[in-house]
Amino acid sequence: MNPARSHSRDFSLGMNTDISERVYGYRPNSALAIAAAVVYGTLASALLFRVVMSRSWWGLCLPIGSFFVSLGFVLRVLSKHSPSSIGIFAIEGLFIICSPAAFLAFNYITYGRLISYIGAEHSIINPGKVAGTFVISDVFTFLLQAGGSGLQTSYKLANTGQKIVLVGLALQAVSYGFFIVLLIKSHISIKSSGSRPMDKSSTLIWVLYFSSAFIFIRCIYRVAEFAQGRGGYLLTHEVLLYLLDVLPLVLAITVYVPFWPARYLGYHRKESLEMNGGLQP
């Protein structure tokens, strides 16, 4: 039998082929996927409660992102019971890999609002433009990841799709690395100026550090995973998905349940609100 023809059939709709096993080298563990779905779903509810109670509509991206990651793990369970369904497999990958972009966007917006509150002079980028600049970058890398994820379901374009996802993830990591540098420089500027007491806003800076550290761990893991390609150690060992993707991201957003940003920003001056796009907590 022609191997190429055989592989081509493996990616055809309706064939009795375990796509997950072909791509990952294993069948997903249902218990772990269900646990991840429950955790993300619970966090989505808790964060939505925070948004509604504080009227922080600008923060909706956080519970929405958490909800879609939860849905991704639900689909991961379904993909085990429908192993030949390319549609379920593709959407699962899209939600799990791409939805966390919303977590990065939330941190960008939070930073912009924090600097608007403390003082625009402490940022090398106008705080009113920080969120827009990084979110545009986030959207661009998201589209690359989404497009690449879709191509990975095609036998002929699978390698191309993987490379596109890798480029998207690498650019996302570089962008977020720059954001962390921006956060550090702002923190140093605030501490050295002594022009304004840090009060409660200092707590939010440390929350951003905490969240960003775990997000960056996940970024590096995903870049390394896709750089290794199919058959790579990171991709073929499911436990690493939960240790280096799920756990870091859960920690990165769980911190906002007790430390919701609106609690530390007080009431913005009118000019600060305008600088930040008119969004109110």
From TrEMBL:
Task: Tell me the InterPro entries matching this sequence.
Answer: RTA1
Which compartment or compartments is the protein found in? Membrane
Q: What is this protein called?
A: RTA1 like protein-domain-containing protein
Q: Could you name the Gene Ontology cellular component terms for this entry?
A: membrane
Database matches in PANTHER family: PROTEIN RTA1-RELATED (PTHR31465:SF1)
What topology does the record note for this protein and the membrane? Answer: Multi-pass membrane protein
Pfam families under this entry? Answer: RTA1 (PF04479)
**Is Membrane set as a keyword in this record?**
yes
TM ranges: 31-51, 57-79, 86-109, 164-184, 204-224, 239-260
Organism domain of life:
Eukaryota
Q: Which residues form a coiled coil?
A: none
Q: Does the keyword Acyltransferase apply?
A: no
**Organism listed in the record:** Thelephora terrestris
Keywords recorded for this protein, A-Z: Membrane, Transmembrane, Transmembrane helix
